[in-house]
Amino acid sequence: MRIRMANRARRALAAAPASVRKAFYKQSSLLAANLQHPSLRAKKFGESTDTWQARVNRDSRFYFRIYGDVCEVTEIIPHPK
Q1: How many domains does the chain contain in total?
Q2: Which domain, by its residues, includes 47?
Q3: pLDDT tens digits, residue range 46-64?
């Protein structure tokens, strides 16, 4: 699977701390290889919008949509606790 970043996600990643950026790059490579990887904890977030949520690290999540063999990351946000 190929990873594509929406502009909103690019801006969020650029503004994120270095530890979040590093973790996101690791997690996105795992996503490209295997959506079912345990450390992603990927799950369907919105049935109507076909949005998925996955874990960046303990405190951050990213949201994405799947279009064929392309995964478009739409948001990277702090995890609401």
Answers
A1: 1
A2: 2-78
A3: 777 789 999 999 999 999 9
